[in-house]
Amino acid sequence: MSPSRRRQALFAGLVFNDDNEPVEVAQVGNEPYYVIPDASFRRHVESEYVDRQVLAWLQKQISANRELVTEGMLTMLGKDDLFTKAMIDASIQNIDQLIEQGLPDDARSWLGMFGFRIIVDIHGDVIRTELPTQEAPDGL
Is 115 contained in some domain? Predict the structure, then answer.
């Protein structure tokens, strides 16, 4: 990372404490921190600590459903060629690079619209991730 580039908290707006209170983001120098409310105290935890836990969980979920995810991405992109498939596979394999590259604001908004939430304790340990599932239509 270049010294002039500021990192961002990947999941800003999607992190909550175990009392369902939103977690804010604060910048200390070039480092982003999640600010976790704890009664009248505000605990600062490096965002990278939380973000890496979530990325590991996401990578595990994606890997378990790799073919389905790849097919979905190809459909969404409107392409079905070997080169695009290879690019998607490489992106899935290197998901942890998002720490340096950041998550596009549109992607973060999209996750929020689908109800994706990260619940952390006062130390920044991820308690659970919530991603509401869509129920299958009747008859399926």
Answer: yes
Q: What is the pLDDT of residue 122?
A: 96
Residue 15 has pLDDT above 50, yes or no: yes
Q: Encode 86-101: b = buried (16+ Cβ within 10 Å), e = exposed.
A: eebeeebeeeeebbee
CA end-to-end distance (rounded Å), the chain: 48
Enter the tokens of residue 75: 């459909």
Range of the domain at 83: 15-130
Does residue 108 sit within a domain? yes
What is the DSSP code (8-state) at residue 35? E
3-state DSSP call for residue 57?
Answer: helix
pTM value is 0.75
Count how many domains the chain has: 1
7 in any annotated domain: no
